[in-house]
Amino acid sequence: MSEVKAKTLFDHLNQITAVQDPSYFGKLSDEDKKTWSNFMIHRFLSMNYDYVELIAEIQPLTQALTPELFYKVLIGIIPKGKVFLRYIKGKSDDKIDTEIVELIILEYSCSKNTAIDYYEVLMNINGGKEYIDYLKGKYGMKTEEKKKKGSKK
To answer: Is the torsion defined by CA of 5, 86, 64, 80 positive or negative?
Structure first.
């Protein structure tokens, strides 16, 4: 007899993005349900640039939901399709620009830890640094180019 393996976080993420079966939770064993984590689902989905703003908006509203209800909310708002959710490891605090983290907190009304996660995502995706420059401009901070030009005068 072959032993059935418990579902992993990645199995759950695949269900949310690619399969989107509304009765998925009814089919899970107790062992499978133990591998579900609303926090980790939030974290991995926010690694996709297309979902960052969406996850930032819904996180305060969904973090206290039951896993089954949270799953149903996600399959209702995440577009169906295969996606690659690259996990970005955290950097040491001394490498994080705290001014940018503060801007992200202002922009998304999120916690410092969430803002650090978003900062790390932005620093590792195409267009992320441009978005940081946009935030700097929006909140009146000088960008690197402006600082360099200003120092010549």
So the answer is: negative
Report CA torsion sign: 13, 19, 25, 31. Answer: negative
Instruction: Provide the token pair at 133.
Output: 């420059």
| Of residues 2 and 43, more confidently modeled | 43
Report the Cα–Cα distance between both ends of the chain, in Å, rounded. 78
Rounded CA-CA distance 108/105 in Å is 5
Domains annotated on the chain, with CATH: 1-87 (1.20.272), 88-141 (no CATH)
Q: How confident is the model at residue 92 (pLDDT cuts 50, 70, 90)?
A: low
Q: Which residue, chain included where needed, has tokens 């939030």?
A: 42
pTM: 0.58
Q: Determine the Cα–Cα distance for residues 60 and 49; give it in Å rounded to an integer.
A: 19
- Residue 87 is predicted with a pLDDT of 66
Contacts of 118 (CB under 8 A, 6+ apart): 46, 52, 56, 104, 108, 110
Cα-trace Rg, the chain: 19
C-alpha closest to that of 116 among 129, 99, 133, 130 = 99
